[in-house]
Design a protein that fits this description.
This protein is mainly α. It has 17 helices and 4 strands. The strands form 2 sheets. It has a two-stranded antiparallel sheet. A hairpin with a 2-residue loop joins strand 3 and strand 4. The longest helix is centred in the middle third of the chain and has 27 residues.
Amino acid sequence: MIKISRNTILSIIALAAVVGFMVYAENTFNPYLLRILNLCAVYTIFAVTFNLVYGFTGQFSLGHAGFAAVGAYIGALLTMSPTQKQANFFLEPIVPFLANIELPFILAIIIGGLGAALVGSLVAWPALRLKGDYLAIATLGFSEIIRVLLVNMQPVTNGALGLKGIPEYTNLYWSWGLAAVCIFVCKRLVDSNYGHALKAIRDDEIVAEALGVRLSYHKMLAFFTSAFFIGTAGVLFANLISTIDPKVFLFSLAYQIVGITVMGGMGSLTGSVIGAFLYTIFLEFLRPIESPFNIGSIQVPGIPGMRMVIFSFLLLMVILFYRRGLMGNAEFNWDWVVEKVGSLRGLFGGRGKVGDGPAGKED
């Protein structure tokens, strides 16, 4: 007789509930709510992959906006119809080999991810020789180079005009399906021997190298994996908002990703998901303050950008009072949930082992 553990049963129930909610939301929610949920998934991928590079490997990279741009443009060009491309490239014709290409969305996602991974590897090869702030500045510079190339490669990217009329293929199934794959792959990688080597590099590169860890190989592995999933998120993003241009991928996007990850907790994939949800939903909740509104008899003028000011202040509060973020480096743990919810203890019998932190044992 096969014995199924309590945690497995809870995971299956939770997965079924999430899938059921996605199906219900996709068929019931209005486009505005659907866009918010899709953006939560996109930012989840951004934060999880940044956490892989910085939180688990200790390499402070700010090149994520550039890699997302590569994936977004590749995905857009591969999914747009020849008619849409012709309508966009009216100042200068598109290069012939891209003019008539139109691929299924799944192929565009894969190719977009591989393209971003290739660019990420080319950036990482020289940049990962640097450490700390120097690495951050170098990768930020490469990201800006990518953006400048997008502006000037008119026959390929349509320059500063960007691309419009991108098919809106992204839905909850694609976005959260890919987010689940990203979390699963990163979790398996972190828990494997490769993950232990990445954490050793994060803690002390000299000691890790003395223990036989190949620094360049493992750094490149983390960077390649991160860039691939960032590229796929870029494809989802382009096919969600249906129009992109180089200004969408300014360095401010990289700072937003860093803020989400720090808020959730460096070294916690669970924290990255929580941070992505809080960031996306909270910014939408604050959107009205950028328009004129009344407080009693006092009229307050709208101030563009005030949402980011308030979010930055709250992020500062999190850093001051939760220095390691909301989750630290702890992960979600069913044992902690069962311990807190007494009714579940009675349902399954026994109380299981409880982790050290608020969501399980930390690394």
